[in-house]
Amino acid sequence: MVSSKKEVSSEFLPFLRVYKDGSVERFLDSPYVPPALEDPATGVSSKDITISPDISARIYLPKPPTTTQKLPILAYFHGGAFCIESAFSFLSQRYINTLASQAKVLVVSVEYRLAPENPIPTAYEDSWAALQWIASHSSNDQNYKKEPWLLNHADFNRVFVGGDSSGANIAHNLSLRASRESLQGGMSIHGVLLSHPYFLSSKPISLEPSSDDDVDKNLLYKAWEFAYPNAPGGFDNPLINPFSNDAPSLSSLQCSRLLVCVAEKDELRERGVRYFNAIKKSGWKGKVELFEVEGEDHCFQIFDIERGNAKIMFKRLASFLSTPLN
Q1: String of b and e for 135-151 (b: at least 16 CB within 10 Å)?
Q2: Contact between residue 45 and residue 61 where contact means Cβ atoms under 8 Å apart
Q3: Would you list the domain boundaries of the chain?
Q4: Is the CA virtual torsion 324, 124, 174, 50 positive or negative?
Q5: Which of 211, 222, 207 lies closest to 270 in space, CA to CA?
Q6: Residue 305 has pLDDT above 60, yes or no
Q7: Which one, of 119, 113, 87, lies nearest residue 223 by Cα?
Q8: First CA to last CA across the chain, in angstroms?
Q9: For residues 106 and 72, is the Cβ–Cβ distance under 8 A?
């Protein structure tokens, strides 16, 4: 008798399971929610847009104080170890509604393709394509379909890229790439927001595992191996290790302002602090700030937006995104 149960090909628990027929079962994704006009809690409106056959996004528009005021733009990249979560999930929707409302910023939350179906570097390429699409609205390029919310409400002199965890990693790499490759219309990145950034190396530090055996069991390391099998350089690939010998100089970041957020109990805290210190010593000409929340863990503010420390963090993020140009 033939069993109807599908055969497992590989697993990355507790996140997902891959079957031999190519299907993937994800366990920790939060539910899909539709966009909404004037969210009752925040007043933020959202809608879904198609950037290309492979890339989409959810765009968020807060109520501007005046009909003529242009708003800063945040190209946002969600976390999830490159393999789970979505720009269209409940957690993402609630988080971005709150941030857009408090910062008065227009947000484009990018739905990049996930591993293992689309291994790295797909997430980076999709995110770069989405950023180029945003930039196309600052030019007369007719090769891109234009989005009215961006045309009517966006201030292309105040463009931010940011994200949480693996999304922060993406934002870091986009800001480096923007220094090497031009964005449409000559658009430049004004600020970068890195919340609990996901960086690694072959040499663990601080709270990270201290032996090869521990590394094999650690989810931080397993996630990178799962998302990018046979990555050149492994954990010292410049995409995941900004201090590797092959990594671009941190002094080349294309932005004038940078905010690095860390949490006291986060296993990635020390890497975030090390990144902040390295930026200061790199010769980079912008202003870098470090914001730490005590007593909290990785991306705590996404999972419970009502807790006291989350409200403090939202206030800090909103301040960074809404500060006028000098």
Answers
A1: bbbbeeeeebeebebbe
A2: yes
A3: 32-322
A4: negative
A5: 207
A6: yes
A7: 119
A8: 73
A9: yes
Catalytic residue among 126, 164, 236, 266: 266
Question: Which residues touch 87 (CB under 8 Å, ≥6 apart)?
Answer: 56, 57, 58, 76, 78, 109, 110, 111
Q: Say if CB 190 and CB 326 are below 8 A apart.
A: no
Q: How far apart are CA 307 and CA 158, in angstroms?
A: 30
Parallel, antiparallel, or unpaired: how do β-strands 154-164 and 71-77 relate?
A: parallel
Residues 6+ apart with CB under 8 A from 242: 172, 199, 250, 275, 278
Cα–Cα distance measured from residue 224 to residue 240, given in angstroms and rounded to the nearest whole number: 8
115: left (phi over 0), alpha (psi -120 to 50) or beta: beta
Q: How confident is the model at residue 11 (pLDDT cuts 50, 70, 90)?
A: confident
Q: ∠ CA(74), CA(320), CA(124), 5° rounding? A: 35
Q: One of 30, 138, 165, 201 is an active-site residue; which one?
A: 165
- The DSSP output letter for 240 is T
Nearest to 298 by CA among 209, 192, 191, 166: 166
The dihedrals phi and psi of 116, each to the nearest 5 degrees, come to -90, -10
- What tokens were used for 14? 């507790």
Is the omega angle on the peptide bond into residue 53 within 30 degrees of 0, that is, cis? no
pLDDT tens across 22-67, in order? 899 999 889 999 999 999 999 999 999 999 999 999 999 998 766 6
Active site residue 141: no
The CATH code belonging to domain 32-322 is 3.40.50.1820
Contact by Cβ (8 Å): 86, 92: yes
The three-state secondary structure class of 301 is helix
- In DSSP notation, 22-35 reads S-EEESSPPPB---
| pTM beyond 0.90 | yes
Using alpha carbons, list the distances in angstroms from residue 91 to 86, 162, 225, 303: 9, 16, 26, 7
Q: Is 266 a catalytic residue?
A: yes
